[in-house]
Each structure stands twice: as C-alpha cells, then as structure tokens.
Amino acid sequence: MPATPIASAVRYYRRGLTKVSWVPTIANKAAPSRAELNAGTELSVEVGAVEGWQIVSAVVETPALGSKFNSKIDGAISADDSSLTLYASQTGTDVRDLLARGANGFVVWMDEGDTAGRKMDVFPVRVLSQGKLRQMEEAAQVQVQFAVTSEPAENVTIPA
User: Fold this and answer.
1) Which helix H or strand E contains 96, and what residues bound it?
2) Domain ranges of the chain
C-alpha cells in the first residue's frame, strides 16, 4: 500500500493578501492579543520589497571514526538579515517617522492575511537603519534594516 499523499495546498499569490505590521508592544510573542495587534501599524500598503525574514538552522557535522559518512545534526537557530523597503514621501512624512533607528518592537507577518485562526510569525526586532535608496528610474524608497533580537514565534494562531 503506498504512503498517503500530503493534502494539496490551496495555492495563493502573496501580493494583496499578506499583511506585515509594526507592533510596538507585545507581552507574549507566542500569543499576541487582538488589542496588541490592532495597536500596531500595517505596513503592507507601502512595502515595495522584502529581504530576509527566514528562520534558519545551522548544520553541525557529526563524523564518527567508524564510518566514512559524515552525518549531521541541527545546530544554532538564527534569522537571516532582514529588511523592508517602503516608499518615501516627497513631503518627508513616511516610514522614517514610525521606524526610528534604535526602536524596539515586533514585525508581524500574516502570510495568508489577517484572518482569525490562520497563522502568523512574530519577529522581535530593533530598527538598525533607514537607508534612502537613490535610483534613477524607480520611485523613491527607504530600506529599513532590522536586527532580530530573540527567537521569533512561528506559526502562532491569529486571534479573533
């Protein structure tokens, strides 16, 4: 008898659905309240590019004298260098007012939208920089770089 196949994914296009927010305060990153999430600022409508936001595990080799094969185990967990690139405003009133260098808070990713019962990832972060991207043929943008300050909470259920 063959193995049971994995359930087919309901595939989706991320743009227009995924929500990313800046939330200044969350008491328990593994269970943010709806009030805490609502106190944040949704950034999705101004995000032009995303880099990082992936949690990775180092690989540790575990060679044994009795074998030529090098087995491996999981090692330290870290988050990739991460940034959000948002559009700059000609008036100067934009993301730079919200995400000041040195600010601590949380970047919350709701990949399938802000829908109760679905999943989100909560990244505790510090804002590192607000780099102004100066390019000839693109709209003006500000790239905000973040340091992930502790282990993110993954696959947290979005509250009602």
Assistant:
1) helix 95-98
2) 19-157
**Which two structure tokens, joined as six digits, stand for 71?**
């087995």
Each residue of 98-122: pLDDT tens digit? 999 999 999 999 999 999 999 999 9
CATH for 19-157?
4.10.410
Best CA proximity match to 107, nearest among 124, 119, 132, 89:
124
Could you give the C-alpha distances from 54 to 1, 126, 138, 140, in angstroms and in order? 37, 16, 27, 26
- What are φ and ψ of residue 8, in 5° steps? -65, 135
Tokens of 77: 């967990």
Strand, helix or coil at 95? Answer: helix
- pTM for this entry: 0.92
Instruction: Give residue-wise pLDDT tens across range 32-88.
Output: 999 999 999 999 999 999 999 999 999 999 999 999 999 999 999 999 999 999 999
Sign of the torsion angle spanned by Cα atoms 87, 93, 94, 95: positive
- How far is it, in rounded angstroms, from Cα 78 to Cα 155? 16
For the chain, how far is it from start to end, CA to CA, in angstroms? 42
Q: Is residue 1's pLDDT more than 90?
A: no
